[in-house]
Amino acid sequence: MDETQSPALLPHRGFKLIVGIHDPDDVDQIRDLEIRESDVFVVTYPKSGTIWMQQILLLLEAKGDVTAIGPPGKYSNAGLIPWIEVSGKRQAFIEAPSPRLRVTHLHHQLMPAALSERGKVIYVARNPKDVLVSYFHFHKVANMLETPKDFDDFFEKFLRGDVFGCSWFDHVKTWHSHKDDMDMLFITYEEMIQDLPSAVGRICVFLGKELTDEQLANVVKHSTFDNMKAMPPANYENVSGELLNHHQGRFMRKGTVGDWKNHFTVAQNERFDEVFDKEMKDFPLTLIWDI
Ligand code: A3P
């Protein structure tokens, strides 16, 4: 094994899988899955707002009635809208009734080819400096990920793409380049922070759903950071301590834009900007770094 490689990650067809969480054979069969018109995939690089989008989709399905989703102590967002790449979830997807709502961190080349003909994709992108900080803290909470030595060490790992999700730059660029090959809504975490009602409205229209203004207002209300932080299903509190060490921190941590400023040194920021400029030159998306 390469010395710089995290021991918990298994390189697989241009991606990295988490040992014990992903089964390479299962992942290989995702590409050939049959897709229904009503299927929706939320695609994210880790720590970009996956759980937030799960919450919004669950609430849109429930027409804003949070109690209709289920008793708060009994479900988790990830249980209701699972990761397609996690072991055993592919077969469950095949057998699930419509609408099949799923999330994924996979690269485009591993996802069902049929998405170019049917189904919908919502890609959520977040500025990578905040992603790095959020991911650093998450590595301390998530038992399946290597505990970082220190911030500096994790910073370099992230820039090298030596983390689950691989390179943030490749993830965003590749998915964005396929934006017009499929029915995709490309939205940013920062847009959602700046104007959640408008983001929820766009998602609702994209999914072809019809909700009243009151129902939409309820979707917004139950997907704010403060309300989600108080909800066990959105904090993975119903998920076993084997996966997440809740004593190390909460899943819903800060939910802000610009927290990187509290973590990056001046030198780290310069180094990040250098890599960013090289990687993202000519990329047609303006990211928001601070609000
Ligand atoms: P922070 O660690 O910066 O707080 P993911 O679900 O992809 O793992 O992303 C988790 C990140 O999204 C965490 O970021 C979490 O706090 C943030 N998040 C989740 N729901 C949010 C909300 N309603 N508003 C703002 N941020 C939210």
Walk me through the structure.
This protein has 291 residues and is an alpha/beta fold. The chain has a single domain, classed as 3-Layer(aba) Sandwich (Rossmann fold), CATH 3.40.50. It is built from 12 helices and 6 strands. The chain has helices spanning 24-28, 50-61, 77-80, 89-95, 128-141, 151-160, 168-177, 189-194, 196-206, 213-221, 225-229, 266-280, and strands spanning 9-12, 15-18, 40-44, 101-104, 120-125, 184-188. The strands form 2 sheets. Strands 4-3-5-6 form a 4-stranded parallel sheet, sandwiched between helices. Strands 1-2 form a two-stranded antiparallel ribbon. Helix 9 packs across helix 10 (213-221). The termini are far apart. Residues 44, 46-52, 130, 134, 137, 223-225, 228, 252-255, 259 line the site of adenosine-3'-5'-diphosphate.
Number of domains: 1
Shape label: globular
Helix content: 25-40%
Q: What is the radius of gyration computed over CA atoms, rounded to a whole number of angstroms?
A: 18 Å
Kindly, what is the distance between the CA atoms of the first and last residues, rounded to a whole number of angstroms?
A: 42 Å
Bound molecules: adenosine-3'-5'-diphosphate
Multimeric state:
single chain
In CATH, the topology is named Rossmann fold
In DSSP terms (H or I, runs of 4 or more residues), the helix count works out at 12
Spell out the CATH superfamily.
P-loop containing nucleotide triphosphate hydrolases
* Highest-level CATH class: Alpha Beta
By secondary-structure content and strand pairing, the structural class works out as alpha/beta
Unreliable sequence segments: 1-5
Average of per-residue pLDDT values: 93
Strand content: 5-15%
- Give the neighbour order of strands across the main sheet: 4-3-5-6
User: How many individual β-strands?
Assistant: 6
What is the level-2 CATH architecture name? 3-Layer(aba) Sandwich
Largest sheet: 4 strands, parallel
Pfam families: Sulfotransfer_1
Main location: cytoplasm
Keywords: Catecholamine metabolism, Cytoplasm, Transferase
EC number: 2.8.2.-
